[in-house]
Amino acid sequence: MTWLLNPLALAERMNDTTQDLLVLDCRFDLTDPTLGVNQWSAGHIPGAAYADLDQDLSAPVLQGVTGRHPLPSQEAWQQTLRRWGITPDTHIVVYDGANSMFAARAWWMLRWAGLSRVQVLDGGLAAWQAADLPLNEQVNVRQPSELMVSCPSDWLVTADELVQDAAQYQLFDARALPRFSGETEPLDHKAGHIPGAVCADFAQNLQADGRFRSASELRARFAELGLAAPASASSPTCYTEAPTTVCYCGSGVTACHNILAMQLADLPQPLLYAGSWSEWINDDARPIATGS
């Protein structure tokens, strides 16, 4: 299964009652946490449930300890997936407003739980509406499931690991250059980036219409950024001395967008530093770099 789905293909699958399909609306606004759910209530892809970044896709924040969107525990995430009625056979399609930054977080987390039938609606709700497809307020009522999940710890890297063996990792920061360089910081109490990281603004994974660039374009993009990776995902031994790729951002959300883009480019899946910049800066002993 490819990781992207276009709106017309989704509309066709919604008419196939033989498939167990769940659509998740992941719209959210970092500066107005109620905006996404209000937009969903006003109209969404027919039958879509709402996946709230703060309530469903994150654990409670521990001030001074975690980042702004810590990952939920395996147990809590399992309970959310059960509440949505997800089984191993459920085909899940996630979307947000346009640029897939929140949808990518859901995509990563669903796969982290061991679910394989997960796709991102390419271009998000904007693409759905551009295809003249309908919105309504309908929500499908699903029976809770008994899904069992196993979330692998080796998909993640911790701040301590990054500090202790920095040379082992190649870091890609998904934030835009002004935040990466420390020129501005609208969300966190310190500005800058983790030393040695490369600025890999997630928005550059997209075309002007919000759809992802082609696989070849994405491969070229990350090669230009200096990604030390195998020539293809099927030949992981090409660069045995290459450092481990790590994606991070402000709070572990847009980092998943870069992970998705690398997967679309047939590159090996990088690790996620889920705490990201907003966790990193909680410890004054962790180094900070500025500039581009």
TrEMBL record:
Query: PROSITE patterns given for it?
Result: RHODANESE_3 (PS50206)
For this UniProt record, give its keywords in alphabetical order, as a comma-separated list.
Repeat, Transferase
Domain Rhodanese positions? 17-137, 165-289
- A GO MF label: thiosulfate-cyanide sulfurtransferase activity
Q: Respond yes or no to whether keyword Repeat is given for this record.
A: yes
Q: Which PANTHER family match?
A: SULFURTRANSFERASE (PTHR11364:SF27), THIOSULFATE SULFERTANSFERASE (PTHR11364)
Please identify the protein, giving its name as recorded. Answer: Sulfurtransferase
In its UniProt entry, the species of origin is given as Salinispirillum sp. LH 10-3-1
